[in-house]
Write a structure and sequence with these properties.
- Helices cover 50% and strands 0% of the residues.
- The protein is mostly helical.
- It has a single domain, classed as Cytochrome Bc1 Complex, Chain D, domain 2 (Orthogonal Bundle), CATH 1.10.760.10.
- The radius of gyration is 21 Å and the shape is globular.
- The N and C termini lie far apart (62 Å).
- About 20% of the residues have low confidence.
């Protein structure tokens, strides 16, 4: 009986010490500060779908830096112009380095140029 009491006490202790914050990971489908105007934009919706289907979320998140910069940081750095959409889409396709640190972004040659531009338009719409 004493063994069972010790096991139950250990389980209770482990349960009390576990880190159960129920913290949800932010996904592009639920950016915290997306304005309703931006989220109703067709460029936002299409870009969001493309980003969600891609491997982008491996290195990027909407609001926090992972391996690459947060999308909101990119949006804050680059104004939403056709020139910047073209520049950033080229970086998605060909890769890049140096702007956000020493870790290079890998090229994504299988993404079409049109899709890369659509993804960039979504990202730039996250600008506050």
């Amino acid at each position: 009986m004493k063994k069972y009491s010790v096991v139950i006490a250990l389980l209770a202790f482990m349960g009390a010490c576990s880190n159960n914050n129920d913290k949800k990971e932010e996904t592009p489908a639920t950016p915290a500060a997306a304005t309703s105007a931006a989220s109703s934009n067709p460029d936002y919706q299409k870009g969001l779908e493309l980003v969600a289907k891609s491997d982008c979320l491996t290195c990027h998140k909407v609001s926090e830096k992972v391996t690459g910069p947060a999308y909101k940081d990119v949006a804050a750095k680059y104004e939403n112009t056709e020139e910047n959409v073209n520049l950033l889409a080229a970086k998605v396709l060909k890769g890049g380095s140096g702007v956000w640190g020493a870790i290079p972004m890998t090229p994504h040659p299988l993404v079409s140029e049109a899709d890369a531009k659509q993804m960039v338009k979504y990202i730039l719409l996250l600008r506050k």
